[in-house]
Structure formats: C-alpha cells, structure tokens
Amino acid sequence: MIFTPTLVGGESIVRLLNGRTFESEFNVPHAARAIVVGSGIAGLSAAIALLKAGCEVALYERSAVLTEVGAGISLWSNALRSLDKIGAGEAVRKHIEPLRTSEFRGKEGRVVAVSFPASALEEALGSHPVIGMIHRARLVESLASCLPLGVARYGYEAIAIQDKGSQVEVEFANGHSDVADVLIGADGIHSRTRSLLWNEPPPRYSGYTCFRGITEAPACIESGYLGEWWGRGRRVGITTLKERKVYWWATVNAPQGTRTSDKRDRLCNEFRTWAEPVPELFRTTPEDAIIQNDVIDRRPSRNWYRGNCLLIGDAAHPVTPNLGQGGCMAIEDASCLRHLFSMQLPVDQLLPRFLELRKKRVAAINLDSYRLGKVGQWSGSVACWIRDNTARSLLPIFGPSMLIKHSRNVDRFLVE
C-alpha cells in the first residue's frame, strides 16, 4: 500500500497504514512528496523527519531486508536531542548505554590522561547523557519502528534519475519507477545516488584500516565505559553496550585494500604486547563477527544537491569516525529537513538553504576528525612520545571542552 497523506480539518495530519498511525506537527494543505533512497541511519531518520513535517514519503532500499552491520555507534547529545526533535528519541533512548566515564590510555595500560566522569561533561554541556552507546542494528531497528507500515520498500535498487522539471523520477533495477517533488539520497559513502548525479573521484583513503567487533564485556570494564588506547600506528577504542556487551574497534596503518584471511589472528599478533583487556577482546570475538573497513571520507564540497535531488549523511559529507559524529551528522541532517519542510519552502529554495545551514558545521567536523585520526596514527617513536606527553599535560585542562565541542556547537533549531 502506498502511503498517502490525509488532511483532517484544522487538526494535524494523521496517517493510517495497516493499523499504525503517524502524526504530523503541521497543517500542510499541499504536502510535498519525497522519495528517500537508503534505509540506514540517515535514510530512516530523514523519512521520520519528513513525515513529521507533513510530507508524503516513500523510502526505497536496495537490500531485500532491513540490515545493519554488527557494530556499535556512539550517539552524542546533539544526535539524541535531534532524535527527540523528529519524534524518534523515545524509541532510541531506551536502548542506549549512557556514558559514565571516558579516558585515554597508552598501549601499556597506563592512563595517558585523567579520566573524565560523565557528570563533569554533562555539567559543562548541560545535557544528559553526553553520549549514549548503542548497537547499530538496534538503532536501525528502533528508527524503522517509528515508520508506518508500507513507507519502506526493500529490494529496490535505484539505477537512474530523470529530471522532470518540478519533479524527479527514479527508476529501479526491478522495473519499478516513482515520481516525487524531491529525492533524498541517503545511501551512504558509496552512494549510488551521488554517482548518478556527479562524476567524481572515489572517497579519500585515510591511510589506516579499521577492525570492529562486539564481544562479552571483560570483568575489568565497567558499564558506561568509553576509552581509547593509543600506540604507534595503532589505536583501540572500547565502549560498553547494553547487556554487558563491549563494542571495540582497532585501527592499523596499512596500504588501502590490505586484507587477511584470518582477521582475529592478525589482531592478536598486531596487539600482542598491549595490556589487557585489549588482547582479550580480540580472542573472545568470533572470526566471522569481526568486520574490516578501510577508513575513508571525502573532502568538504558543495556537491550536495542538483535539481530536485539532495544528498544527506555520508552520501553528502562522509567523515572519518574519530570524533564519533558521522551518524550524528546524518541525524542532524534529518532534523534540518524537518525544520525546512515545515516552513513549506519551494524545493528550489529549500535545497540551497539546507546546504547553507549545514555545510560549515560538517566541514569543521570533517577537518577536526581527519586531523585527530592522523595524530592518533602517528608511528614514529619521538612523535608519539611528544603526542602522549602533550595529551597528559593538556587534556586534564582542556579535555572536557574539547570532547563536547561539537555537541555544544549545534544549531538550536535542530534540537529545541
């Protein structure tokens, strides 16, 4: 069944689909119709936000079923508050593990910088929690549960985009086509939508690859822990999830495309001299549960929209994961869509306005994240000694403000 808006007198718009309802905040006598391509964090958040703004929405995903990788994600307060704004906060918040303490360590296990209790960060930021950790699959499931039945369609791979003047047509590999007032491309860093709109070089390789996994929490890791352990050309991140699980990641300097047949053995060898619980995390994670991806991004650009097509999330502005703000930026994008579509602007004014509102913030995060990753992956002994000693001296003083910088500098209309 195709989702169709219904205007009810002077009340808000209520949509009914197979017994599930969705209520809009706004009276929209001429609702815009939007096609969203991609059902990850960006696409699902955008669909929820557009419905909240009173739009008619059809979401298409090329995968046959709703899926997400077995890894974790940190949702900073700016993302959690944006989820509240679009109406998905309650569904997500009940699954997060709130941050209780954060710290940096060296590979030997000694504390490089003093740990930061969440209470101090929350007081500085004025928001609770500062970070909520969650399994990516649980986040996607929670977002999907906010959509009326029939909005999302699976097994639809976009293969062509046609400009129809005031509208846009999308053609799919299965022969289906659809027409809307606006197309939202939310299909990730390897976006097919982007490739259909621009002929661009591939994403930029950072110089390091990343392994990720989820395992049982070691006894020494308390709930609410978030830590990074830095070595020479290698880093490890550790964070807890619900039900005494730990999500970990490990970065290693390597040529792009470097792969191995046994990821767990490679990690155990690469990090064999590191203090526990780092080796334990690798030993207790099944081989088939370890994910490897090269860390890539794109330099900031203005190629976010063309005609009636707009890119959001990683499709528009991918960032390296060093600040934990990539998914958060996608959720903020969705909140920005809710804000703009609720103003009932013409699409040819709305899309440039979206770029104007978002480009400076995401460019700053892109740059800061890229630089942090480069410093974190230094491999020279002298450079790493200077880095670690500088961190030990300065982070106790400037650490809290640095950690919450990008959660604090959020546009108020996105979260209030």
Describe this structure in words.
- With 416 residues, this protein is α+β, with helices and mostly antiparallel strands.
- The protein has 2 domains: 14-68 and 146-202 and 298-372, 3-Layer(bba) Sandwich (FAD/NAD(P)-binding domain); 72-137 and 205-297 and 376-408, D-Amino Acid Oxidase, Chain A, domain 2.
- It is built from 13 helices and 21 strands.
- It has helices at 41-52, 77-86, 89-93, 118-125, 136-144, 192-197, 263-270, 278-283, 326-342, 347-376, 381-403, 405-408, 412-415, and strands at residues 14-17, 20-23, 33-37, 56-61, 72-76, 97-98, 101-106, 111-117, 131-135, 152-154, 158-164, 167-172, 177-180, 182-185, 204-216, 225-230, 234-241, 245-253, 291-297, 305-306, 309-311.
- The strands form 5 sheets. A 7-stranded mixed beta sheet has the order 8-7-16-17-18-15-19.
- A hairpin with a 2-residue loop joins β11 and β12.
- α9 (326-342) packs antiparallel against α10 (347-376).
- It is globular and about 60 Å long.
- The two termini are 34 Å apart.
